[in-house]
């Protein structure tokens, strides 16, 4: 079944594409449907208001209910399977890597809950924690901000800062209360682990299938069915995110291409521009 049309109730961007917020509702369509896989350079927070969804993130599947909040880190590839027998309504807030870095620097604080080392990684917060830390209230306050234009940016930034601090506290104080994945697809997880371990090398499907003890056709079919994208697409997205990080750290475009295992710079250039809409030689801070 195709994805039904979503009705946008409210949305806006702040500071270019650095902060994006929207409130969307999709009416019941009678059957289950899959939202396409995606990945971006932003931290994504989704507050589920109505409906039931299964969120797949890198081979781990979480079941969310109204009031739960989903947290997706930059670069994580995710897809949503939605129970279309009910309406689906959500609030979504995205803020990019640079926004968080600027806020961390201003605070002179390290926000461990947003670290990339995986130690504090979480994907879903249950409703009791979301409400206990007032995250649902802040979500609506950001949405409902009606300040005059000259103050609106400042007000939203202050609320975003409050939101980030509360999430960081929540993570530090409640590590044993996060919702665990309802399911794990061992094959998808194995693919993700292999790609992460060989991300700086050229990755061949034949070698990947051999390492996982499955046929190439089985591997490709299973992966595409679960993730709604091909393995080659997955590998490319992962490599492009690493390349963007390397560019932000000062690498040249040619150096970044070599570091992520591209033997042909033209192919790297094409994939990077197709994914981010900008050439790798442009300012790293323009890449979203």
3D structure, described in words:
By secondary structure, the protein is of the alpha+beta class. It has 2 domains: 7-173, Regulatory protein AraC (Jelly Rolls), CATH 2.60.120.280; 186-277, Arc Repressor Mutant, subunit A (Orthogonal Bundle). Helix content is 41%, strand content 22%. The chain has 10 helices and 11 strands. It has helices at 97-107, 127-132, 135-143, 149-173, 186-197, 205-211, 216-227, 231-248, 253-259, 265-276; strands at residues 7-14, 19-26, 33-38, 42-50, 53-57, 60-64, 69-72, 78-82, 88-96, 124-125, 183-184. Strands 1-2-9-4-7-10 form a 6-stranded antiparallel beta sheet. A 5-stranded antiparallel beta sheet has the order 3-8-5-6-11. A hairpin with a 4-residue loop joins strand 1 and strand 2 (19-26). The longest helix has 25 residues, at 149-173. The radius of gyration is 19 Å and the shape is globular. The model has no long low-confidence stretch (mean pLDDT 85).
Topology of helices and strands:
Layout: E1 7-14, E2 19-26, E3 33-38, E4 42-50, E5 53-57, E6 60-64, E7 69-72, E8 78-82, E9 88-96, H1 97-107, E10 124-125, H2 127-132, H3 135-143, H4 149-173, E11 183-184, H5 186-197, H6 205-211, H7 216-227, H8 231-248, H9 253-259, H10 265-276
Antiparallel strand pairs: 1-2, 2-9, 3-8, 4-7, 4-9, 5-6, 5-8, 6-11, 7-10
Helix pairs in contact: 3-4, 8-9, 8-10
Key terms:
single chain, 288 residues, alpha+beta, Jelly Rolls, Arc Repressor Mutant, subunit A, 2 domains, six-stranded antiparallel beta sheet, five-stranded antiparallel beta sheet, 10 helices, 41% helix, 22% strand, globular
